[in-house]
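INFO worker-7 received task bundle
INFO bundle size: 2
INFO processing item 0
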Amino acid sequence: MLNRFYRKASVRFSNRRKLPNLIFLHVPKAGGTSLDRTLEALYPRDREGNIRFDKVTEAWQLAQDFRPSGREDDFSWFQTINTVLSYKIASQAPYLSGHFAVSQQILNSAKDKYQFVTLLREPVARWKSNYIYSRIRLAQDGKRQAPKNIGQELEDYLTSSQAKKEGTKYVRYFGGYKTPDNMGSQECIEKSVTLLSQFDCIGFLENLPEFERRLSELLNIKISVPHLRKTEEFMEPSGRTAGDYKALFTDAVVEKVTEICRPDQEIYQAARALEQPIVSS
């Protein structure tokens, strides 16, 4: 049913007006899947706009033989997706989306050709959602054997490098990729805010109607974002649900997650302060 809606939306739009070229920076677990589907339906389907996670992973793996022996991982997955993004920008694909990062160089090069849009979510809520989704999804894919004590699993995870990495997701996506060991620094946080301030439209999942209004003004077409991916409906093969994982987040655990997310929280609060009315050209 949704696919029929998207096809009809695309046909209706093609008969009316041309959309500006658009780059949607999709931060994981911030509501971006629904937005991407909505936007992708409004653009020509003769080119792949969504730079897909699985295809980038496949390309990264296929290219490993071209790297010096013993240094196969030097060219990271993140470098791969941003190389693909740069190629697509150079090709002037009309709509681009994906889990890529942004740099000042990309903004300087593409700002006169593209509108830049992103959707953010309160960092602690995003961290929790990402944790729950990844636990269940890995189990569904057979890549994780869920332990009996998932509470202890979470406690162990909280002290891991991956947990800290998830607490600096905004830093990483908005300029912090060059300083992986220092993403919590004030310099990196300020750089991220500077890059975000150059976006044409920043949305917040906590106020989706306002984002829809602002994006509609920017694109000069009515935008409505359905909620397609619902983590609470996910279930492990063992029968555990998202609710079982949500129950693990006691006040004490949330306090630890809040500290982990401090860098992203600073960026999120600064981004909220950046909200300005869209001025139609």
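INFO item 0 finished
INFO processing item 1
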Amino acid sequence: MIKAELSLRDVLSSLPADHPERAELEEEVQRFEERNALRKLAELQEAEAPERVLEVLETARQRYGDMYEAVAVPTVTLRETTRYPEGWVPLNPWFFQKLQEGRIKPETAATISEAWVLWDKTARPNYDGGRQLYGNGNDPLGEELAHLRSQGAVEVPSHTKHVPATSRFGLSANEVDGSFLPLHAQSLGLRADLGERAMTRPYALFNVIGNMRHPEAGQVNTWEWMDEKFGDDDRLLGGDSDDGGLGDVDRSWAGSHNVSVGFSPAIVLPPQA
């Protein structure tokens, strides 16, 4: 397969820009690369994590127990025409439509860049009137969330007063970004100068890793905030089993406190970490 790719690229590079077959060949190379990247994802085995990834993972274990697992992901761009491996749940066509319209930011939201990702394994629960808790009531993030609420860093409007202080539900996307993620990154000792970051899970990453290893992320009837912005004031959210599971995506005001919407952090580390 690698030889085929090199051969196609060699032919492509030899064609003048105005050659009538160039566009068709470019599409063929693109499709090949998509299939090859998705094949690698589908066949992904445990890779040997570099020292810095193991260091951050160990810090996480000391602070949060067995909350995270390290996953190596290659660069892959997903498209509405992408041929997924058998059994995979594809991205929602609405996502590509709004991305093309320029409503979703960043513009590269359909591309997953090569990285090491620490994936939060804590189970998102089914809806229970806002009283539901991640991790079957034993959420490793509960202490930090209770602290943020007690300090007023997370607003508790009247319709969320019944939500437990340790809950990931009822936080706005703005509060997750502005209050929780900086605290969490500090707890993990992440280094921004090395390109290390804590974020809510981007939709494409949620879909791909969910398909690869964690289908349960799309098997509960609650949502989670995604990383992508929609327009000026909204944020993507998804994952509801009633609306498509791993393919589910919608948008909501980033300042809303919804007792059906939680979040999961993703720790993204450079591939050479």
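INFO item 1 finished
INFO post-check item 1: The CA atoms of residues 233 and 247 lie 23 Å apart.
INFO post-check item 1: The chain has a mean pLDDT of 90.
INFO worker-7 idle
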